[in-house]
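Run Phosphoribosylglycinamide formyltransferase through structure prediction, thanks.
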Amino acid sequence: MKRIAVFASGNGSNFQAIVNAVKREELNTSITLLVSDKPGAFVIDRAMKEEIPTFVFAAKNYQEKANYEREILKHLKANEVDLIVLAGYMRLIGETLLQAYSGKIINIHPSLLPAFPGKDAIGQALKAKVSQTGITIHYVDAGMDTGPIIAQEAITLSDKETRESIQEKIQALEHRLYPSVIQHLLHKKEVFHQ
Ligand code: GAR
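Sure, done. The structure for Phosphoribosylglycinamide formyltransferase is below.
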């Protein structure tokens, strides 16, 4: 069975959705590691409750990205991780991980990329008064939300929308689409994009 690691910085509702999909046997994988760059993030509590091993670090304790990414890599190798799943991991992936896991790192972003990359995509969509936004799942490259797109789904916005109402719709979509895309990627024949 293919093994995944989830990287997350915050609440971890997507992490939980992936865990739940595994429990329901809709997603056939083993989540062997949670990586978090935010000691104290709620996602770490979730992982502990699910008895999933964690590697938690604070970037400020390392001189540069390559140093903590080498640590992460050790944990990924020790846990024989096949695919890295970013789920609200608010940090750019560096060369160390990109080279070691070429074509095997995916991300979910709360907008229809290339619209609204980077931080606060929902706030950016609100401000732009767009009538549609959505979510994107894509391969990760060295850029900010720039890798090849795997899947997108749109939602329509009314003029009464608030940050909370958009977030609720976006997250419901994310929780449904991400596990099914992971399942597809792990089980298709030509296993990964290169
Ligand atoms: C998700 O909505 C995800 O799309 C977004 O962070 C949220 C994490 O929520 N990611 C980004 O904005 C990446 N640029 P969660 O911690 O509840 O899963």
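Residues 3-187 form a domain with the Rossmann fold fold (CATH 3.40.50.170).
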